[in-house]
Amino acid sequence: MGRIRNTFTLARTSWHVLQKDRELLALPVLSFLGALAALLVFALPGFFALETTTTATGDGYVMTPLSGILFVLAGVSMAIISVFFTGALVAGAHERMSGGDPTVTSAISRAFARIPGLVPWAIINWTVGAILRALRERAGWVGNLILGGLQMGWEVAAFLTIPAIIIDDKGAIEGFRTSAGLLKRTWGENLIARVGFGLVGFLLVIPALLIGGVLVASGSMVLAVIGIAVAAVWIALALVVMSALGAVFQTALYMYATTGQSPQGFENAGLSQSFGHK
Predict the structure, then answer these.
(1) Is 53 a domain residue?
(2) Most CB atoms within 10 A, among 35, 195, 228, 236?
C-alpha cells in the first residue's frame, strides 16, 4: 500500500511539472488526430476491401490480401504516430526538468531529430504486440496466461525505451536494451507504478461515468444526449492528461535511473524510495 500511495504522489508531482507547460497537452490531442487520420486513410479502405460471404448463420466478411495489407499499414501508422508524440512529450518534459522552457514546437523538433530511433522502435513494438495478441487469440487458457505474462514482461522491459531514444539519442535496439537493463532490478516497483497510474486514470473518469449514467437513466432523450456528450469529452480530456502525466513520469524515472539524482520538480517525490536500485 505504501508504494501505491507513493505512486499518487508521483502522479501529483508529474501534474505540478506539467502545469508549467500546459501547452504540451496539445501533443496527445495531435496524436489522437493523427491516429484518426491513419484510420481514415488505411483502415476504412481496408473494411471496404473485405469480401462478403454467406454462410448458414448469415452474411459475414472474409479478409483479403488487400484488406490485410491496409489493416497492417493502419496499425503501423498509428503506432508510429503514438510513439512520435510520446517522444515529443518526453522531449518537452526533459527540457523542463533540465531547467529549460519547452514549447510544442521545440518538443516536436526534438522528436523529429530522433526519428531514426523512434520509427524503428514503433514498428518493433507494434510487431511484437501484434504477434503476442495473435498467439493469445489461438491459445488455451494456460497458453493465454503464459503469453499474457510475456506481454506484460515486454511492456515493463520496454517502459523506458522512448526516453532512452529521446534523451540519449539511442537507436531502437540499444534503447530497449538500456530500458531493460535499468528496470530489471525494479520491475516490481515499475508494475506497481503502472497500476497506480491506471488507478488514477480510472478515478478521473468516474465522475464522467456517474454524470453520463444519471442523465442517460433520466428517460429524457435530450438529457441522455447531453450526458453522453459530457462523458465523452470528460473521458477524452482524462486520457489526454494521463498520457501527458505518463510521459512526464517516464522521463523523470529515466533521468533518476541514469543519473541517480531526482530531476527538477521531483526532489521530494520519493523516487529514491520507490525506485532505488537493489
Answers:
(1) yes
(2) 35
Do the Cβ atoms of 278 and 48 come closer than 8 Å?
no
Measured CA to CA, the distance from residue 99 to residue 102 in angstroms comes to: 9
Query: In the chain, how many domains are there?
Result: 1
| Helix pair 221-259, 65-97: axis angle to 10 deg | 60
Task: Tell me whether residue 207 is in a domain.
Answer: yes
Q: What is the pLDDT of residues 120-137, one digit of tens each?
A: 999 999 999 999 988 888
CB 95 within 8 A of CB 60: no
Domain holding 131, by residue range, is 2-273
Q: Is residue 278 part of a domain?
A: no
Give φ, ψ of 266 to 5 degrees: -115, 15
Q: Could you read off the pLDDT of 43-52 as tens digits, one per residue?
A: 999 988 888 7
Q: How confident is the model at residue 272 (pLDDT cuts 50, 70, 90)?
A: low
Residue 216 lies in a domain: yes
* Contact yes or no for 34/81 (Cβ under 8 A): yes
**Who's near 155: CB < 8 A, 6+ residues apart?**
none
Model pTM score = 0.87
